[in-house]
Amino acid sequence: MLNVKLFELQAFLTEPYEAALEAGLKAAEEKLQTASGAGGEFTGWVHLPRDYDKEEFARIEAAAARIRSNSQALVVIGIGGSYLGARGVIDCLCSPNYNLKKKDTPNVYFVGNGLSSDAMQEVLDLLDGVDFSVNVISKSGTTTEPAVAFRFFREALEKKYGKEEAGKRIYATTDKARGALKSLADAEGWETFVVPDDVGGRYSVLTAVGLLPIAVTGVDIRALMAGAAEMMENCAKGTYACPAWKYAAARYALYSAGYPIEILACYDPAFRFMSEWWKQLYGESEGKDGKGIFPASVDFTADLHSMGQYIQEGQRILFETVVRLGASDRQCYVPRDEADGDGLNFLAGKSMDFIRDRAMDGTLLAHHEGGVPNLIVETDGKSAADLGQLIYFFEYACGLSGYLLGVNPFDQPGVEAYKKNMFALLGKPGYEERRAELEAKLNK
Question: According to DSSP H, which parts of 257-307 are helical?
Fold first, then answer.
């Protein structure tokens, strides 16, 4: 079972905090479990690992099997919570080099998460001569980046297969009843999956949003859900025996003590996009009303040779949360070199896991002595079940953290500001007056 360790945290806090925060955590717990807090209408994820739609889950598995049988590639179109979780799981469980590996499952290309012409054309080029399918993910169907991307890949499908056959290769994950994408999917007869009304995008990785792309790679999504269900039961205990309580309380205590930046670190490069998912989850949930811990991430040991300097000796305004994944199932051992020109024969016969773990311990001690508090999140391994536990743990702790902070963890009003300006500058009808004002400012 996942565990949270607090490495000599008392050295950075002037007084005990667990008893002081217990009432606040119990109140936050009640809000999450009963959907009675701010944004409670978006807490469907809390009991999702138990209450998910079993019929849709079976359709997801069937669609994934169909895609594996008739496609060499799947194009996943989505932005933010509509892709980060799936990409994080695929990278972590299958490899960041998944698309380069020899395998009997389709490549997975994530598009619609930016506005780069080069990136768009590159994926179109990669699909030349390749059988492919498309999973477009958008609750509304009108979000600019994925909607624009879908136009390109729908056109490519229809040119390659004709409209009727192309329609059999389009899978729309969208609202269950309304919205532009749902209306289009129904009109065209595409298979659809649901973005639940009560689950916000950044909490949606364990819905069809994440499960269909993940399943296409051959990952055991039943094990993923089972791990999440196990953590759900653990979190429902409502005490400090729950790792989410320990994590949320420690974060809040450190924030209150003058540490407003959290760095998520992992010593496995496959974890990079899980960190990106975590950053959206916490940044979008907590960063409002002038409050919130700023979430950042690093890849160790690589970033110890760059960001490591700032972490060790920069401003004392940050703390680290280190994710320690379990042992690799593909152990590598350092060869012996008779000449020993690099002086590393003392490592000969040692596993890479052993070296990594000693690097972790050495870094932990150095950063702690340099004034950086450390929290450690440990998993038993790196299986689908382990990752399911980790996903639910971070989601639940995020809900607790938001309520402790006194914000709504499930809205994101600030995200709309840039969109209004973008629409105006792009010439969207109805934004003419705003466009004139913005262009005047830009031309000063």
Answer: 272-286
pLDDT at 142: 87
8-state DSSP, 352:
H
* Cα 97 from chain centroid (whole Å): 18
Tokens at 276, concatenated? 């990106």
C-beta atoms surrounding 308 within 10 Å: 17
Tell me the C-alpha distance between 291 and 131, whole Å: 48
Q: Which helix (H) or strand (E) holds 31?
A: helix 18-34
Whose CA is closest to 412, among 203, 208, 250? 203
Phi, psi angles (nearest 5°) of residue 353: -60, -40
The amino acid present at 420, given as its one-letter code, is K
| DSSP collapsed to 3 states, 329-383 | CCCCECCCCCCCCCCCHHHCCCEHHHHHHHHHHHHHHHHHHCCCCEEEEECCCCC
The CA distance from 372 to 18, in Å, is 20
The helix (H) or strand (E) run that includes residue 126 is helix 117-126
Which pTM does this prediction carry? 0.95
As given in the structure block, the two tokens for residue 113 are 């998460």
- Half-sphere exposure of 353 toward its Cβ, with a 13 Å CA cutoff? 10
Question: 221 with 61: CB under 8 angstroms?
Answer: yes
Q: How far is it, in rounded angstroms, from Cα 26 to Cα 32? A: 10
Element (H or E) spanning 377, and its range? strand 374-378
- CA–CA dist 94, 249 (Å, integer): 33
Tens of pLDDT, residues 49-96 = 999 999 999 999 999 999 999 999 999 999 999 999 999 999 999 999
Answer for the pair 309, 425: CB distance below 8 angstroms, yes or no.
no
pLDDT, residue 223, reads 98
Q: How far apart are CA 297 and CA 117, in angstroms?
A: 27
- All residues at 6 or more sequence positions from 125 whose CB lies less than 8 Å from its CB, including other chains: none
Q: Is-contact 211 48, C-beta < 8 A?
A: no
The C-alpha angle 332, 270, 137, rounded to 5 degrees, equals 150
Catalytic residues, which ones?
A: 284, 305, 419
Q: What is the pLDDT of residue 91?
A: 98
**Low pLDDT (below 50) residues in the chain:** none
| Residue spans of beta strands (DSSP E) within 175-304 | 191-194, 261-266, 294-299
d(CA 248, CA 397): 5
Residue 437 is encoded by which pair of tokens? 């004002």
> Rounded to 5 degrees, what are φ and ψ at 298?
-140, 155
CA-to-CA dists, residue 5 to 122, 247, 378, angstroms: 44, 9, 8
Give the Å distances, CA to CA, from 262 to 258, 288, 311, 420. Answer: 11, 16, 11, 30
Distance CA 222, CA 234 (A): 18
What are the structure tokens assigned to 368, written together? 């702690």
